[in-house]
Structures are given as structure tokens and as C-alpha cells.
Amino acid sequence: MNDGVARIFVGFDSKEVVAYHVLAQSIIEHSSIPVAFSPIVLSNLDGIFTRERNPLQSTEFSFSRFLVPYLSNYEGWSIFMDCDMLARADIAELWKLRDDRYAAMCVKHDYQPKIETKFLGQTQTKYEKKNWSSMILFNNAKCRALTKDYVNTATGLQLHQFKWLESEDQIGEVPVTWNYLVNEYDYRSDAQLVHFTDGGPYFDEYRNDDYAEEWFAMRDRMLHVQQK
């Protein structure tokens, strides 16, 4: 694919379908460059993603996200992001951060989650590099270790802690504003991509969280149609 087109893979979860569509709309609305979306939907991955669901995984795409390099034919760059996000800035700014010195790039969060339970009663698991993998720029040719077989058999920590790379030096750093954790971090007006990691505003208990009003406004625009 032409590097002038931002190739964006988004985790899709049947429990929060609206999240994917609002995130895509927010990216489209702010973008100054062409974008190509690929939702990662388990029912579309028959014969590709075969691993059993782990009781600790809070979303359907917890592990399937690591198929992005495979699905990109190990060519060019791709962005992965969780669906429970909202873009507030031009995705071209994130796309420009691609650096061929690295195999993957992400926000290197250093925090301990404030809560024990998140949306729909899911346990908030705590581990090193928590949320690093919720937004990744993949330099696909340098991620050939992420074969279909590896993604189906590796442990959760091997995947989410980037153990598939030879060295942590292969992980580039992205500014925190490109994966800004709602509620975990204080409100910041210049956050470019906010992440409702505890639960999106579409769940009743999170509808008054920071940036929720912006999310609902974007949902309304996503549903817009001009009538006769």
C-alpha cells in the first residue's frame, strides 16, 4: 500500500460495536490524508486466528491485534488501535512519527491502574507495559516474528510485553498524547487520541467521564444524514 495512505487496524468487539464506528468517524473527520480501515473482527478470521478465549481477556481483540503485520503481508507500516478511543487531532501527525529504526512504536505508559474492575465487570489485569499494545505503529517487515502460528500460541505476556522482539531497543516511543488514558491521567486539552481504557461513554457508568461529551457529539455526527 502507498505510504501516503494511513493503514489503520482497529480492534472490533461485539459488545461495543458503536465504539469502532465513532472512532473511525473521529479519524476521518480530523484527517488530512487518506486512511484505510481494517476492523479486526474474529468472525472474519476463521482459520487464521484459532486460539481459545482466555478468561482474563477483556476484549475480543486482546490477542488478534498482533496479527496486524501478518494481515499487512509484512509490508509497509500499519497502525493498530483499540476501539475505545477518540481521535481529537489529525492522524497524519501520528503517521509522520514512523521511524524505520524501530520495529514497533507506542506510548510507553508507566502507571498502575487505579481500579480493580473495568467495564462489564472485567478484572483489571496489571502487568509490566500495561496498555503499550493498545496503540501500536507496526513496521511490518521488522515484525516477521509475529507469524500466524506465534500469535495463536504465544502467552499473553509474550505478546503484550513485546517479547517477540529481540530487544526493547526496537520499540520506539510515541508522545503520551497519542494514547491518553482517560481517568488514569488528568484531563489534558491537547490530548490527540484519548483512550477510554476503563470503559467507553457508551456504558452508562462512564458516560460522564472526561471527553465523553466529545464522544457523544462525534456519535451524533456519525449518525448524520441529510434528509430531503
UniProtKB/TrEMBL annotation:
Record keyword Transferase present: yes
A GO MF term: transferase activity
Keywords of the record: Transferase
Lineage top rank: taxon: Bacteria
UniProt keyword Transferase present: yes
PANTHER family in the cross-refs: EXPRESSED PROTEIN, PROTEIN CDI
Name recorded for this polypeptide: Lipopolysaccharide biosynthesis glycosyltransferase
Native source species: Rhizobium paranaense
